[in-house]
Amino acid sequence: MTRELSLGVAGLSKVYRNFLRKETEALRDIDIEVPRGEFVSIIGPSGCGKSTLLRLISGLERPTSGEVRFGPGYGRGDIGFVFQSAVLLPWKTVFENIAFPLKIKKIPLEENREHLDALIELVGLSDFRNALPHELSGGMKQRVSIARALSCSPPLLLMDEPFGALDAITRDTMNMELLRIWSDTQKTVLFVTHGIDEAVFLSDRVLVLSPRPGTVRKVLTVDLPRPRTQEMRLLPIFNEYCRALREVIG
Questions:
Q1: Rounded to whole angstroms, how far apart are CA atoms 40 and 113?
Q2: Does the chain have fewer CB atoms within 10 Å around its N or its C terminus?
Q3: Residue 26 in domain
Q4: Which helix (H) or strand (E) holds 190?
């Protein structure tokens, strides 16, 4: 049975031109189809266009050629974006930062307070709803960022190395938290990372991009049971998946 499409990318390419009209080809002929509810990680060497791909999908940038198409119930207004840096407003509380997208879209806050309270509980910050960003750890700031991206209930979540700046222990904790949130919300997730083991641990599939210009070099299906546990990182098949990806990246 074919799963309903969340988004599709066909022949997507991006060429940047500087003021001297020098061209840099970032992406070339990217083709992807992502079913609803799938968790897909995108890995590859630095500068291969991973972040550019997310920006093209989100509409923050326009492609040079190709197209992004969305399945039923999906569109560019239905995307949540989590960046590497949490980018929280320092003068606003946790609750106010999470609610900010609703304010921008002029969505009544009072009618959605129960939803926002549920998001704060979902990311484990009920005791910090009135805290300011400077009172939060790095991991807590990223929890706020994830909740903010979910505030307008988008079916599609784009995540650009959201845990890249965290220490290893906090990163492992956030991986488990993200999987719990994903399981609870059933969002479609595209997750950019430099971590091969992180990609294998989180994903249904891992998309490997080549060095610039980024092309799809390999798509690896990760056949590990869910829910995932930290103990799975010790399984021979887990290490085999990681080895296969390292061989492709080189």
A1: 31
A2: N
A3: yes
A4: strand 188-192
Q: What is the DSSP string of 50-109?
A: HHHHHHHHHTSS--SEEEEEE-TT--GGGEEEE-SS----TTS-HHHHHHHHHHHTT--S
Please indicate, yes or no, whether residues 65 and 174 belong to a single structural domain of this protein.
yes
C-alpha 140/C-alpha 132 separation (Å) is 11
Distance, CA of 77 to CA of 41 (rounded, Å): 22
Checking 176-181 for CB contacts under 8 A at 24+ apart, the result is: 176/230, 177/123, 177/124, 177/143, 178/146, 178/202, 179/226, 179/227, 179/228, 181/122, 181/123, 181/146, 181/150
The larger pLDDT score, comparing residue 74 to residue 34, is at 34
Q: What secondary structure letter does DSSP report for 166?
A: S
Same domain, 223 and 193: yes
Domain co-membership, 143 together with 203: no
Domain boundary among 120, 154, 188: 154
- Quote the number of domains for the chain: 2
pLDDT digits (tens, 9 = 90+) for 55-111: 999 999 999 999 999 988 777 778 999 998 888 999 999 999 999 999 888 888 888
